[in-house]
């Protein structure tokens, strides 16, 4: 499984609790300082410093061709459409046909043009996009996109 943008590892710990024995957890983090922190604090996660827009290459360097699950903590609403598309293309190329891509979104960002573009891009790239109910106890409140069956040309 691949985690994009693990940051300080808040989600990483929960992922590792659910990861089956023998499962592999790769974290792709672009910030060098956060990547170094994760290497020290997340003992089971293999940390790869790099840009998610180069996900296929980063995974190939780790001996990985296809993945079952990708979880994203990336701030999609801050990314221009071109950057969103570059990363989503990489995701759909490395995700197995029966794989799952999940990403959370903060509710306050949903009305923005970039957040709307992201949602439309998901719906164009996956056969199924489920949107969870908001988690109001999260600070700030968020929902999750659960995307299945990537569409590849």
What do you see in this structure?
With 153 residues, this protein is α/β, with parallel strands linked by helices. It has one domain (2-150): Vaccinia Virus protein VP39 (Rossmann fold, 3-Layer(aba) Sandwich). 35% of the residues lie in helices and 29% in strands. The protein contains five helices and seven strands. It has helices at residues 10-18, 32-41, 55-61, 81-94, 113-125, and strands at residues 2-4, 26-29, 46-49, 67-72, 95-106, 126-131, 142-150. A seven-stranded mixed beta sheet has the order 3-2-1-4-5-7-6, with helices on both faces. Helix 2 (32-41) links the parallel strand 2 and strand 3 (46-49). Helix 4 (81-94) packs parallel to helix 5. The protein is globular. The mean pLDDT is 94.
